[in-house]
Hints:
The structure holds two protein chains of two kinds.
Chain A: E1 3-8, E2 13-20, E3 24-32, H1 38-42, E4 50-54, E5 58-59, E6 78-80, E7 83-84, H2 97-103, E8 107-110, H3 114-124, E9 127-132, H4 138-147, H5 157-160, E10 166-168, E11 187-193, H6 198-206, E12 209-215, H7 220-225, E13 230-233, H8 244-253, E14 259-262, H9 264-273, E15 277-293, E16 299-310, E17 320-326, E18 332-337, E19 342-345, H10 360-376
Parallel strand pairs in A: 3-4, 4-6, 5-7, 6-8, 11-12, 11-13, 13-14, 14-19
Antiparallel strand pairs in A: 1-2, 1-9, 2-8, 3-9, 10-12, 15-16, 15-17, 17-18, 18-19
Helix pairs in contact in A: 8-9
Chain B: E1 9-13, H1 25-39, E2 43-47, E3 63-65, H2 71-81, E4 85-87, H3 92-104, H4 107-111, E5 114-115, H5 120-127, H6 129-138, E6 146-149, H7 152-162, E7 166-170, E8 180-182, H8 185-198, E9 204-208, E10 214-222, E11 228-236, E12 249-251, H9 258-275, E13 280-288, E14 295-301, H10 306-315, H11 319-327, E15 354-360, E16 381-387, H12 390-400, H13 422-430, H14 436-445, H15 450-457, H16 461-479, H17 488-496, H18 501-508, H19 512-522, E17 527-530, E18 544-548, E19 562-566, H20 577-592, E20 596-601, E21 616-619, H21 624-634, E22 638-640, H22 646-657, H23 667-674, H24 676-686, E23 693-696, H25 699-709, E24 713-717, E25 727-729, H26 732-742, E26 752-756, E27 762-771, E28 775-783, E29 796-798, H27 805-822, E30 825-835, E31 838-845, H28 852-859, H29 863-871, E32 891-897, E33 918-924, H30 927-937, E34 947-951, H31 957-969, E35 973-976, H32 978-986, E36 992-993, H33 1004-1009, E37 1015-1018, H34 1028-1038, E38 1043-1044, H35 1047-1063, H36 1070-1079
Parallel strand pairs in B: 1-2, 1-4, 2-3, 4-5, 18-21, 19-20, 19-22, 20-21, 34-35, 34-37, 35-36, 37-38
Antiparallel strand pairs in B: 6-9, 7-8, 7-9, 10-11, 10-13, 11-12, 12-15, 13-14, 15-16, 17-18, 23-26, 24-25, 24-26, 27-28, 27-30, 28-29, 29-32, 30-31, 32-33
Helix pairs in contact in B: 1-11, 5-6, 14-16, 15-16, 16-17, 18-19, 20-29, 25-26, 30-35, 31-32, 31-35
Amino acid sequence: MAVAKIVLADGSVFAGEAFGASAEVTGEVVFNTAMTGYQEVLTDPSYAGQIVVMTSPHIGNYGVNDADVESHRPWVSGFVVRERSRRVSNYRASGDLDGYLREHGIPGIEGIDTRALVRRVREHGAMPAILSTLDLDDASLVAKAAAAPGMAGVDLVQEVSSAESYGWEEGEPVEFATTGTRSTPTYRVATIDCGIKRNILRLLVDAGFLVRVFPATASFDEIRAFKPDGLFLSNGPGDPEPVHYVAETVRQLLPTLPTFGICLGNQILALACGAKTYKMKFGHRGANQPVKDLRTGKVEITSQNHGFAVEADSLAGAGLELTHVNLNDGTVEGFAHLEHPAFAVQYHPEASPGPHDSRYLFGRFRELIAQSLGARS
Amino acid sequence: MPKRTDISSILLIGSGPIVIGQGCEFDYSGTQAVKALKEEGYRVILVNSNPATIMTDPEIADRTYVEPITPETVEKIIARERPDTLLPTMGGQTALNVAMQLHQRKVLQKYGVEMIGATPEAIHRAENREAFRETMWRIGLDVPRSALAHSMDDAWAALEEIGFPTIIRPAYTLGGAGGGVAYNRKEYEEICRRGIDLSMVDEVLVEESIIGWKEFELEVMRDRLDNAVVVCSIENVDPMGVHTGDSVTVAPAQTLTDREYQRMRDAALAIMRAIGVETGGSNVQFAVNPEDGRLTVIEMNPRVSRSSALASKATGFPIAKFAAKLAVGYTLDEISNDITRETPASFEPTIDYVVTKVPRFTFEKFAEADATLTTAMKSVGETMAIGRTFRESLQKALRGLETGRGGLGADGKDPDESAFNDEQLRRNLTIPNAERLFHVATAFRRGYDVEKLHDLTRIDPWFLDQIARIVERERDVAACGGLESLDDGLFLRAKRDGFSDIQLAFLVGSNEDAVRDERRRRGIRPVFKVVDTCAAEFRAYTPYYYSTYEQEDEVELTDRRRVVILGGGPNRIGQGIEFDYCCCHAAFALAEMGIESVMINSNPETVSTDYDTSDLLFFEPLTVEDVLHVCERVRPEGVIIQFGGQTPLNLAAALEREGVPILGTSVDSIDLASDRKRFSALLRELDVRQPRNATATSVEEALEKAGRVGYPCVVRPSYVLGGRGMETVYDETALRAYMKAAVEEVSPDHPVLLDRFMEESIELDVDAVADGERVTIGGIMEHVEEAGIHSGDSGCCMPAYTLSDPILTEVRETTRRIGLALGVRGLMNIQYLVQDGVLYVIEVNPRASRTVPFVAKAVGIPLAKIAAKVMAGESLADVEFVADAASPRHFSVKQPVFPFDRFPGADIILGPEMRSTGEVMGLDPDFGIAFAKSMDAAGRALPESGNVFLSVRDSDKRGVVFIGRRLVDLGLDVLATGGTWKALRKGGVPCERIYKLQQGRPHVIDRIKNDDIALIINTPVGKGAYTDEGRIRQEALGKRIPIITTISGAAAAVTGIAARKERGMGVRSLQEYYQERYTGP
Lengths: 377, 1081
């Protein structure tokens, strides 16, 4: 079997076995603690530029299929697991993990002490790393890892955003639909694609929206031309600060459109309103993060994937009210605009992978639009 | 939301004796709950009839009632204590059933007691099949097609709609007792009849078979703000058709996509809400059709369960503790996660390892029982193992099972290729059985592939492929040609796949010691990782470890003194909760001395594997290899091997050879006590009598020696616990048959022991603590059953209730002499018997015995704790235990509980082979009442009126007259057949003669079936379920009629009936009994 190595910028070396494509990639090494949903993770555009370590040891057990994808391709730079399954067992599977990654040119490494790697990231923070099946010289790899760029200040959105605008009509597959009967589209929503996950689109459709997806660079006029009833800001990879052009568009649209943001969209909305963001030590990536809705006192178990967050202290000055807080570390998980009908959450109510506790937010967005249209007419 | 302040006291009901389907997991859960509630300042009143539990230790609850868990008794406790609330969700099905009865009888209403944790309505919706199915339909969930039947007519009608194969599940029985799968009309009728019979409400559910579907369980928690979390998912390796308690199970689920898993999670939360469990934990079971993913709901338990205990141990998330806090009003986000400290309990644990649970069976004790695994649970214990892959955890679990296997085969114990042909192998794969995974491995060795095995077993291909990988690894290792030529890479990969040194030794043609030495030389050692609920996302503060072969070790040690305690491994008959109780006490004792305690155990049901019990917990198999790894890593000043039963004793010699210091009584002394020749020599030296005995290593020698010892004699293999393979033989033919069966196991190292069977003698058990200079006696127990019945299966009483003071004084003196001569440091147990006023020693065990918790409860002195302190270096004077425990002013009767109702076909008569799974205790100032209570608690309540059927062997004919007369005097009617009837008539006892089975109708079984008999006293002549008397006993068992099989037991029963009729049964707490002992007149 072929050898692969993952080397961190701090010099730690993990040697294991290669799978997926034969390649050498750099990226920020992060870990995800979800026990199911590796295919959703792989295809989540927010992971662009990152080497993802799964903490769950057996990965690939149920193979891959065409339906459980969050975009048209996997985005991770590299994939690290304790053990890749050589056997696929699932009635929906159409292929295996190894072939899938190979097909998309993504290298993987297995057989390493992933827990040791995760503990390093936890203690020292997410850091640049290199995963290679080609160059296996430790010294050379350490040098390359140390020279690899970090995430801060880098605009990754342009890499993942769609080039053209398009309509989206597909909801969740019937056998897994959780929303019951699908409503006919009543409201038009413009979504700005910073790396949007398909399940957001599916749930918007299921919630009764006519959905149009715009590239991140879409202008105020292009979006207005669609005559939207609401604006949706998607998730996406990396640092929100360099994505100032989207924040600018949002700033223009905000007074006229009810707005809902998720993840990077949450951060962009915050920046657009004048709040601040910062890079977290190693972020939140998993499907078990407890978030409290401060308005209801209820706790939701949420799916998360972010390495940057909104500064709590900066909310008030930006006219924003804290609505959701992470119970593990007290970080900002959501806020609402005090003046405009706009709200956002840092976590992923569309889950995929993860629990469905927060799906009600899509309905809330719909209500917000209904209210604001009612108020205007 | 803060805790409730409108309530101040809580009654918690325990689960009673250990039975199949209800093991010590409820002590684990209940103890956590009581501690959590007390921590919150509530007054906790506990009722549990099981003395071997930690929860009934007097300092755990405020008021501890070791009383029968019956609605009548609990009502008396409620009347006395007037609790505000009742928490019924911690004591398994027993507590739930009793709570429901109290509700139905309006007792709770009468005394204004509120049920917390689960309301009667919620319990009804979850437990009543029809209500459950309706609830599921209402929320749009699928359940298997089914119908209820209350009679055979209903059942036949139901079959029309459902068809074969059919699953039959009786309502309200333990672990699905009496259920089964029927493939034809005959089986169907048999199972339905038995099920209706066993069901508390005469009801069975006849269900569409989804045999072969994938089976999953989710552990869910919910608080009163409707926050809900899934603590753990569990996937069964054995598909539907095998009771989940009998299945090999894995956490987390391995073969579900996120969409499938989330659909299941949504369903579980919806079920919790629809059933109406407002606070606490529940277990929801699902089946998934592997062909199309169809999800159906199997059942829901609105309480903590065996699975919740497993989930707690698997994740580090203490479900019962949190459930108790939720029940008094806290919300999940208000409770902090002990392990991470800074994060709240309102999250879902994520794990970065694989947990495998393997059940432990005990079919060898019930030779006539059917060993096929079905929907009725048959296992008596379980072991859990943690590894970084399924292969590693499975192999660790299989060696942790302590059935002599080194892993999944390849250990020199696999049956010969010729042992079964292809057809037999196929049958072993198709029909679920305890060894099925071994057969899967065998099939792979024979060239079967995953597809074929999936067709035969319906086990998911992913699991099958994992087993295939183990077999491939085994092949590679075997092919390398010897230990020296085994390259480092393959060596390490094999260890990572969970192979033990024993397996590797077998594969490379070496021995375990050589493999270990070679491994050390090459630096191939495991590391220890933490179970932290969060896959390392947060720092963990709780040192709960498992071993694996990886890079980084996470053990953190302090400079404190450190002692390792070896636990007892999976529960089995003969080694259960009593030993875990002792291990826990060792940890408590060390804590009091400021010594760091390190627990090693592999049993997820126990209190000892609660991370709260010891300072460090290693969840590891109890094998020489695994224990050595821990010892090498933590470097203890010593290891306590006395408390975990036979398991740690078996490791003692090997550990000592490896330089691990053994605390307490020396390994040599332990050996001396179990070595027949050395022991007899010692007794001769001490001038102590022993029944005539001998050892033999061949058939001829046995026959020759038996002639000298005299018949009847008890034969058994040496070095056993729980009387494995023990039998009483009355003549040469029987001895020859026994030796033939045993001869494979017999060797000069492991001879067969022969003891003269002392008829009509009284047996005694003594538990004492010694420190090398002094021996202090904790208690002397007199057995209710005569000698010859295994001490674990015999009822016993403290203080002795028939023996004279001079004999008891002699017992004390003899105990001291033996204890000093053996140099015992720690606990010791001696079994004596008294025949015609002469005292004999049967055996000495210089270790914790099964009766230690019972004695400790009876006298109110923590014997195990004292012994642990002595072992850690204190003297008995230091711990102020120099005078023998004073004889209590009350009687304590221990009564065994048997699993016969789980093994239809197995005869229930008692003998030298232990078959009870658990025990109860009855306490009262009056012996008769204490005995009656113990029978009540054991589920064999003595009647106060009605017909008593008597049938005794000739040697008991004299004794039976006295029994019969007392019964008649007490107003009961006596029925008898043939000889017994004559004997009674001759003795002047009015008695109705009834037909034997062949004499005509209605005969005795008809009378039993007609509910016309309230008690049976039958001292057996023959053995076997197919003899006439065997059939009578079977029938009585099915009808749950108490049966007494010894004349001494009958005498005690009569005393019990009399006392109960005269005085009735009161209740009193342990705390009061102990108070009286110290302050009484």
